[in-house]
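Dear colleagues,

As part of the handover before I leave the project, I'm documenting each prediction I ran so the next person doesn't have to rerun anything. This entry is a single chain, and its sequence is reproduced below.
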Amino acid sequence: MLENFNFHSLPPADEALRPAIRALAEEAAVTLSVDQRARSWQGFDAAFSRKLGTAGFLGLTLPPEYGGGGRGPFARFVVVEELLSLGAPVAAHWIADRQSAPLILNFGTEEQRRAYLPRICRGEIFFCIGMSEPGSGSDLASVRTRAERSVGGWRLNGQKIWTTNAQHADYMIALVRTSGTPADRHAGLSQLIVDLRAPGVTIRPIEDLAGDSHFCEIFFDNAELPADALIGAEGEGWKQVTAELAFERSGPERIYSSIILLDAWIAHLQKQDRVGEASLRLAGRFMARLATLRAMSIACTARLAQGESPVAEASLVKDLGTSFEQELPIAIADDLAARPEVAVDAGLRRALFYVAHIAPSFSLRGGTREILRGIIARGLGLR
């Protein structure tokens, strides 16, 4: 598997997108405080997402006939890297652009492609993910939410949790059981497009330790869905999910969750007349790891560009990337505490508090560390 992490440069044509997307990101972030920019993943700004759609930065990898840019994964890498590096609010379009649109393109019907993809590209509709459930977590094969065939299509019952920003989303792509029992594991799982405004759908936001309410639970009580809500063939849900998670786990978003805090801390060091040797060594280690992780993420992107599904490689990038992201706030807090006589800017302090509170979730979202390491072990032929 390690030979699949060959060094790749970003193509010049895709690098050429950087000035335009950076200008939009800077415009969106200029009025935000450091701790607000540190919330980039959770920053929900529908107007900004529509502006990105108008500028052609959503659906970059989708075919033009569906409103997309007809570009490759490298183009999206550049756009995501700029948005996250500057702390722009990306939550509104995030799931639809990264996962839902490619899923519908690859597995949906032509009618589904025509109905959803152009609106995703324009930033007009937003999606959330319906995978995790209470009692199942990252063990997605054990989901209990069930869809049964009805006269009009499907009748949905069950519960989902960690459906990020569901209270703002228009649709959910839900992994549900359409046959068998949880004991059947991967067999009998399908994915459905759920209109979150449909009767029988109840959304309850949950406030987290950082004071945000993006973490939601959703209840389905005999929610009726049309027959064309099914994505692909019945029973193909697991195959779809494994392909979908390769998009979720391999991108630059698995490196830059703490990047605003890192930048703020480096700016703090640059203001000092004399920086201690320990701080310099720590900054050097951070930057070396960041450069390595970025190169690995680009290598995964190259495999996506070749039409491959780098499941094991993406899991490795996600595991190493989230470990890096989680270590940043701890190490920075220790460094600041080691020099209590040096004043700390209020923005840096707030950003540190926020990232320290939210960092434990980094190794949960997109698959727990234990699940990822099982995938990596299989990729290495160790199990």
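The mean pLDDT is 92. The two ends are 14 Å apart (CA to CA).

All the best with the project,
I.
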